[in-house]
Amino acid sequence: MTMKYNKFLVAILILIIFPIILKSQDKVIDQIIAQIGSNIILKSDIEAIYLQNQAQGVTSDGDMKCDILENLLIEKLLVAEAELDTLIIVTDNQINQQLDMRIQYFVQHLGSEKAVEEYFNKPIVQLKSELKDVIQNELLSSQMRNKIIENVMATPSEVRFYYKNLDEDEKMTINTQYEYAQISLTPKVSEEEENRIKEKLRDIKKRVEEGENFTKFAVLYSEGPTYKDGGDLGYFGKATMDPAFSAAAFSLRPGQVSNVVKSELGFHIIQMVDRKGEKIRCRHILMKPKIDLETKEKQLKLLDSIANVIRKGDMGFEEAAFRYSTDKNSRSNGGRVINPMTMSSKFEAEMLPPAVSKVLTTLEINEISKPFSSTDEQGRESFLIVQLINKTDKHLANLSEDYQLINEIYLEKKKEETIQEWISKQQSKTYIRIDDTYLNCDFKFKNWIK
User: Fold this and answer.
1) Which of 269, 276, 288, 363 could form a disulfide with 367 if both were Cys (CB 3.0 to 4.6 A apart)?
2) What is the pLDDT of residues 329-348, one digit of tens each?
3) 3-state secondary structure (DSSP) of residue 107
4) What predicted TM-score, i.e. pTM, was given to this entire model?
């Protein structure tokens, strides 16, 4: 009786557990690609990142899957050390911010949330759930990297030694660079023009509320970059938009259209599409008031007068910029423009707004241009005069002209060497096993395979 009962119990347990064991064995036998310490890397981990890389347009000079495996191995070393450090903390808020940015990047690259789901063959909710651990490890490893290199510095003597020992073909070529100052006037749009725009948007709002399609009007009239998508902005949080725009958008109900909203870009009406937690999805129609010809002529004449006063020596360019320029970023800096990408005052020609580049490249040092108009990335028109402060011709990087750049290059090199030394030490004291299918990878670090 007891033996029969035991056999029956074993049979039931086998029926219940066998599928789980089989699935587990499938992972152990077929999917474990590497073990590093007590952590494993699965084939599915590599495949998932491979798909993400393709969705983000990431390319590789070598075997991408080999590169992914090595990056995961390095990450495992960094994360293991980070988890022992009580000063390294990753919050849920940090993970969620990165998660939202990652999903939005996929949506922008692939075209829509539906396209993302089809590409990854899973719902967005599931994709987010699977990405959480990935992003947490990325944040932990990033903090650990920063901790390893936080005390790395470059002394002037090290920088000079580094530069003097470079071969000529290793020295960077610096393209022609320009330093300039500007006086920029952004004219006020007339009340009549603002009223014309508002009335047009109010009419569209009324027609939408009477049953016409918002998307149609966005394609026809919106001057924002999303007009081709019917004004669809996708999902966004409050802090990512102009404050006035966000305040109006977040007060809407799904399907509701806002009153006319003024932002830094122009005037909008907004239609709520959907809400997910602290994020919303909206469409909008943006219309930008136009500056009339008379106003343009007045601005150009005023700038011409200012330029003549400076040329005569009755006022310095710095004082004139402080008095007249409406550009808040350069006004308090004597008109001198700072490159937001490098925080330097040097620009290569292709980094400049097209209209500025066209004028600046024709000037002599200290020469002041004639007035001209320029349009920024948001399509806003302004009127300028510029003065060429300095021009550095194309040359091989040298210590006298390019010390800061050489210092930054050397410091990055020194930091990378510090990271590499740390990884090599961790490799030597950590158990590592890699599946035979990856033994032919050309890894950057040679001690993964022991």
Assistant:
1) 363
2) 899 899 999 988 888 899 99
3) helix
4) 0.62
